[in-house]
Design goal:
37% of the residues lie in helices and 23% in strands. The chain contains 5 helices and 8 strands. A hairpin with a 2-residue loop joins strand 2 and strand 3. The chain has an 8-stranded mixed beta sheet. The protein has a single domain, classed as Muramoyl-pentapeptide Carboxypeptidase, domain 2, CATH 3.30.1380. By secondary structure, it is of the alpha+beta class.
């Protein structure tokens, strides 16, 4: 009888030890993004997620970094946008590369300011920038047309291509392109 108990315990041990090792924090994937803000000159290198868990302090730091640079207003970003950026950089083989931020969050005031600055700005009246669900970017060393094509292949939201301004808009809204 004791051999059966020992064998049962040994069997459970052999099953659970590898499972526990997989839970070891060194095995959990870290999601890192590196940014340069073209208007403020600030840089940010941050791990925003470990495994399936977003890191609240990191998200708050990202919200501040992507604030409206005209007004200083901070808004909470949809963290799925950061996942989209992580997947996008991976899809163009630029994991760990710096992302140039052209525009993050926009207050309604900033959005209207940009809309009326020129007749052909391409700024939407109900822009997802005002919901902190959009970002305009460049990936240094990678043509913006390549970034656009990679974003379109992901099929995870809106993709706008601004060739003359040399940036790509990505958002976590409905799938569409312009």
């Amino acid at each position: 009888m004791s051999r059966i108990i020992v064998r049962s315990f040994l069997g459970l041990f052999l099953i659970f030890v590898p499972a526990l090792q997989a839970l070891d924090s060194s095995e959990v994937q870290e999601y890192r993004l590196r940014f340069y803000h073209t208007h403020t000159g600030e840089r940010l290198d941050i791990v925003y997620r470990r495994g399936d868990s977003y890191l609240p302090e990191a998200l708050a730091e990202l919200d501040n970094f992507l604030r409206d640079h005209r007004t200083g207003t901070v808004h909470h970003f949809d963290p799925h946008l950061f996942d989209l950026l992580h997947e996008l950089t991976a899809s163009v083989h630029d994991v760990g590369g710096e992302i140039d931020v052209v525009c993050g969050y926009r207050t309604p005031w900033s959005n209207e300011f940009l809309r009326h600055r020129s007749a052909h700005t391409g700024v939407a009246q109900h822009s997802l920038h005002m919901e902190a669900e959009a970002i305009d970017i460049r990936l240094p060393g990678i043509p913006t047309a390549t970034v656009r094509d990679a974003a379109l292949k992901l099929g995870r939201g809106g993709v706008g291509y601004y060739r003359s301004s040399d940036f790509v808009h990505v958002d976590v809204g409905r799938v569409r392109r312009w």
